[in-house]
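S1.2 Input.
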Amino acid sequence: MFFRHKLGYSVLIRIPQFFLWIVLIHGICETTPVVWAARYDGKLTVVVLDDKTRQPLAARLELLDSRGRPVRIRAKNAVPHGAYLVFDGQVTLELRKGTYQFLIEAGPEYQTRPGHFVIERHAEDTTEVILRRHVDMKSEGWWAGDLDVHQKSKVLPLMMRAGGTTIAPYFNRENIQGKCKQEKLSSEPSVGPLLSLDYRRGGGLLLLGIGSSDQSYDVCALDKEDSTVKLLNQAHEAGDWAVALMPF
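S1.3 Output.
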């Protein structure tokens, strides 16, 4: 099984009685000015299809104006995510007139397609973007996963499909330097194991309920001086995973 991380990479190491995934994260700081498209002059519907099956693909779209500045828009049935717009198969872009550049991707197994288009007044067009698949890892017995996903449960399945991710835990509880955050579990079917984050000290510890207990760890009940070893022992006894975020 392989796992990829959107900001870095992961390494599996073994210490007595525990398996720890060490996730090395490289921060990304966005300083490019952003243009929000408020009013619009024309529409363009983008349809993303698989090269062989011609079936719609969930995808991520990055949009730039003629000056190379990111353009962020709100579109029906699409989810804004940083500089990207995530959608399931097709999306209608309502834009001011002008020339735009785009980048469309559907995870690492598909090619990334750049392109450009022009919006004129009263335009209402549709274009198909065909993505060729380089490899099908699941057919070879491999699954892609992301262990550090901060998304609401109702949009997580779409984000996973657009990123080519099969496995992703659902963040349930977080303790960040004593400040606790707890998400209510959705009534929708779970897309992955529950995930708790203990970030009281210099680094973070992710606890994944993948064992027989499928539990969520109550990291919010921990004081600042409580030892992390207690959580590690609890995870080991339940057959769960502990993931150390660097630096720790």
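S1.4 Remarks. The helical segments are 156-162, 229-238.
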